[in-house]
Amino acid sequence: MDGYLQIIASAYSFKALQYRFSKGYGEQEVAMAVACQVMTDSTASGVLHTYISHKSRGAIHINSMWGYCSGIMEGSQPADTIILDREPPYPVLFQKIADKQQQLKPDTKGKMAWQPLSGKQHNILSLTEEQQTTLAQTAKSIERYYKRPQEIEWTFEHNGQLSILQTRDSPVEETPAGEQPFPVNITRDAEIIFSGQGVTVQRGIAIGKIFVIDEKNDLNDFPHGAILLTRHASPRFAAIMHKTRGIITDIGSASGHMSTLAHEFRVPTVVDTKIATQQLKHGDEITLDATQNIVYRGKITELDRFELTVEDVFEDSSEYRLLRRLLNHIYPITILEPQLDKITSASCKTYHDIITVTHKLAIEEIVHLSEKHATQSFPPPKQMKTTIPLGLMIIDAGKGTTCSLTDRYITLEQIVSRPLRDFWQGLEESGMWRNDPVSVDMGSFMSSMTRTTSLSASEKVGRNLAVILDNYMNLSIQLGYHSTSIEAFMAENINDNTIYFKFFGGATEFIRRARRTLFITNVLRHYDFMVEIQGDLVAGRVKKLSIDRMSRRMMILGALSAILANWTPL
User: Cα torsion for 24, 26, 29, 31, to the nearest 10°?
Assistant: First the structure.
């Protein structure tokens, strides 16, 4: 308890108060965390500076020693010195091996103590080449996130895991007064490939080689430090966001999933250029200035340094910190999908929660009004008449069909709602729906209910039901123990477009459910969906694609739903 109180009190030490004053932190922003951490089993540790001046160029500076790195911080022990180039593959520019006589390690009582090293360790470099590369890659990612050169304390454990112990801003050696270069001078003679094309998503400078991603590429082949060039933006690039130096796309939205990820990872990004894949090719070395929205040919390392040394960073401002705190009450959704049916308005903690619950209640009210025939605005549900025995009931909430109020049945030709038309096209034309009987063993009986039974929606409105408008669909299908729901809005304005898919299915053994979940996940991710899995629930969302691309994905969901309705996993 004494130690805990000492840490809490340290928030009001002279140095802490002075730091907050210099950074503009108000007292209402002060919060001290007390962390209890497991001690790392370190083999080598040290300190890294992400940017130093070395022979008129930027470089990464590493000091390293065996064991823990207190001796480096105190300056009491000799340490290896390694200077790396800042660009992949981070070649060694300078190296000096120190005569290391001892290392700091825990003794038998758990206290830290200096212990002698064996003779063969005295003059051996304490970092392997692979560890140097890992350090450089991680350090550049941290620097990019904070937009400032960093001083980083780190350690490698016996299992090879790199742990970052601490990072802080590191001052860069200033250029003499009057000689500070400005971007206009730095880029005066540079070749511009194109400028002013597209929309800047995340400001910053990215220098590296172009790596083109298309449907033929495996994301696992993407090299660390390359610049991603692609025709279409996609949330599947989340897998390589920590590797990429920058992103350029022909087509995409500044508020799409990929753009949100680029913001989160602070990756300089320009989308919707229309011409990038025509002007750039795989392997081109470029400088992407996502602040001025210009792409230069070749490396302009001075731009990189200028960005790291510019004085004003918006994220350091009190206004930015206030907006971040406000966003915590607006953006997060705390209502989990499996609990949604039990949620009331009193359970909402954020504005996002309120919108989610309000929407759910609105759909339920439309179904209720339609079922009770309360108004002419919500006529009774009409049954879909097709060759697929789905028993789907349709509620037209406005301009979704061309049929009359008195019709009991509705054909595909009478459907105006684009999401439903595209979904049904995928359901019918994919050839995935099967009406023929299949042999069923006891082990797969429950999972095969969807092949041998058809639940009539007339038993209860809402079992297999679609609420539609001309550009909207809320679809719920339940067959056997499988349930699928799709909500979609598709219009010409790319920023409004969204598809939300959910599948829930049990009634079979675990390994078969796991295979089914993996299959659904792979299909959705291939078609740019962001996927979340909670037990037997698979949820995927895609948004802000062109209407033609959204239509293609709705047809894919139709085909996928047909497969899942007839699923017998091995």
Answer: 100
Pairing of strands 112-116, 102-106: antiparallel
Measured distance CA(458)–CA(144) in Å, rounded: 58
* Residue recorded with tokens 């928030």: 11
Query: Following DSSP, what letter does each residue of 299-325 receive, concatenated?
Result: --HHHHHHHHH-S--GGGSHHHHHHHH
DSSP 188: T
**Quick one: pLDDT at residue 302?**
85
Phi, psi torsion values for 311, nearest 5 degrees: -70, -50
CA angle, corner 446, sides to 443 and 451, nearest 5? Answer: 110
Do the strands 393-396 and 465-468 form a parallel or antiparallel pair, or are they unpaired? parallel
Q: Which pLDDT tens digit goes with each residue over 242-274?
A: 999 999 999 988 888 899 899 889 999 999 999
pTM to 2 decimals?
A: 0.77
Q: Where are the alpha helices (DSSP H) in 97-241?
A: 129-146, 183-186
Q: CA angle, corner 386, sides to 381 and 392, nearest 5?
A: 35
Task: Supply the Cα-derived Rg of the chain in whole angstroms.
Answer: 30
Q: Is the dihedral of CA 553, 557, 558, 559 positive or negative?
A: positive
Q: Is the confidence at residue 8, as pLDDT, over 80?
A: yes
- Tell me 492's DSSP state: S
CA distance 557 to 276: 30
Q: Name the token pair of 428.
A: 């019918």
- The identity of residue 291, as a single letter, is T
Is residue 554 within 8 A of residue 521, CB to CB? The reply is no
CB-neighbour burial class of residue 249 (10 A; exposed 0-12, middle 13-18, buried 19+): buried
The rounded distance, in Å, linking the Cα atoms of 503 and 486 is: 9
User: Environment class of residue 336 by beta-carbon count within 10 Å: exposed (0-12), middle (13-18) or buried (19+)?
Assistant: exposed
**CA 13 – CA 507 distance, rounded (Å):** 60
pLDDT in tens, 156-210: 999 999 999 999 988 766 544 444 555 667 888 899 999 999 999 999 999 999 9
Beta-strand ranges (E) seen in 268-387 are 269-271, 285-289, 294-297, 382-384
Strand order, beta sheet including 393-396: 409-410, 382-384, 393-396, 465-468, 472-479, 482-489, 498-505, 537-543, 530-534
Contact 59, 86 (CB under 8 A): yes
Q: Is the pLDDT of residue 526 over 60?
A: yes
Write phi, then psi, for 219 (nearest 5 degrees). -60, -20
CB contact burial 383-407 (16+ within 10 A = b; e otherwise): bbeeeeebbbbbbbbeebbebeeee
Q: What is the dihedral of CA 95, 101, 104, 110, to 10 degrees?
A: 150
